[in-house]
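Re: that chain you flagged

S.,

Sorry for the slow reply, it's been a week of failed gels. I finally had a moment to sit down with the sequence you sent. For the record, here it is as I used it:
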Amino acid sequence: MAYQAGGQRSVPRPVPESLEAQAYLQDYATLLESVPFPSVVLDHRWDVVLANTAFASLFRGVGPHPTAMPGDNFLRFVLFHPDAHTVLGEHESRWCLPMLAHFAAAVERHGHDHGLQSIRRDIAQDPIMEAAYRQGLPHWIRAVGERAVEHDGAVRPLKHPDPRWGATECRVVDETPRTLADMGYTRLTLVLRPARRPAAPARRAVRPRRTAGHHLSVVPAPEV
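Prediction finished late last night. Pasting the structure tokens below so you have them in one place:
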């Protein structure tokens, strides 16, 4: 069964032991492929279980990364891939911090999960993410309210590589059926909206790739 449209996985994900569950996922992959919008099935670690061609197309312009490709683990992509901001508009406040909030909740529920612990270690090794996670996140949640961290219904900016969409927005829709939920999976679909403005060359500064020397602008700098 293909877990991901557009190429082979770098690390194969285990399939459910039940033949019935495997058959369900095979049929669900066919359903997913019929959806015109980017749609993805994730497990509790944000490992990608299934993704359609529209999802792969959204991220076709990002460069290679050993651990943070969007078709492997979506959380790692949002947090650690240096090209994430080229697709995810207002990356820090509208994507990164909500995902960190969901990660914190997942750690509370599955604290001993080795996959989540691996992500936590990588956060700790990145001064930007560690400052956001430990200092900025609680302050941000208090400032924006709990609703801002929810995925379902959130409208978030995107920069689609297809000029027919261009700089646009998507509504994140959680459409997880009971069978997927029972497997521990979540399905999210990014319902694209028409481009906010016609695609045209714009003169603006190219944002540099994030490095360890820079911390999130929406997060207070760590005290020395």
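What I noticed first: Residues 82 and 208 are 9 Å apart (CA to CA).

Talk soon,
D.
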